[in-house]
Amino acid sequence: MKKLLAIIRLRCPRCATGHIFASLFRMNRQCPVCGLEFEREQGYFVGAMYFGYALSLAAVLPVIVAMLLLGFSAASIYIVSCLVLLACAPFLFRYSRVLWIYLDQVIDPR
Ligand SMILES: [Zn+2]
Questions:
Q1: Is the torsion defined by CA of 59, 55, 36, 43 positive or negative?
Q2: Does the model's pTM come out above 0.85?
Q3: What residues have their beta carbon closer than 5 A to ion ligand 1?
């Protein structure tokens, strides 16, 4: 439960206190509380794309299904889906990276 709360609050996986993000799109290099290095190596966050894809799908799929059931055209579904993804971009960016960091800490804790 503590880990889930830390993920939701975008906190460090080791201490659950330090902020992973310094601003909306800028990450801290390391945890300001315990010093955990968030980006272990160059290209570390490429794996976060898997979470980004899954979260994007979770965000846009209900919209697509609802619009299909309501009989909207493919073009309007496409435009609305793009707008939803654009609006969710900060959320998707941040949570995909945080989930990647947490998964990496489970597999290879440091
Ligand atoms: Zn920490």
A1: negative
A2: yes
A3: 12, 14-15, 18, 31, 33-34, 36
Q: Distance between CA 13 and CA 3 in Å, rounded? A: 7
Ligand 1 midpoint to CA 60 (Å): 32
CA-to-CA distance for 45 and 39, rounded, in angstroms?
7
Q: Where are the domains of the chain?
A: 2-107
Coil, helix or strand at residue 68 = helix
What tens-digit pLDDT sequence spans the chain (110 residues)? 889 999 999 999 999 999 999 999 899 999 999 999 999 999 999 999 999 999 999 999 999 999 999 999 999 999 999 999 999 999 999 999 999 999 999 999 88
- Compute, in angstroms, the gap from residue 23 CA to the centroid of ligand 1: 17
Decide if 13 contacts 103 (C-beta within 8 A).
Answer: no
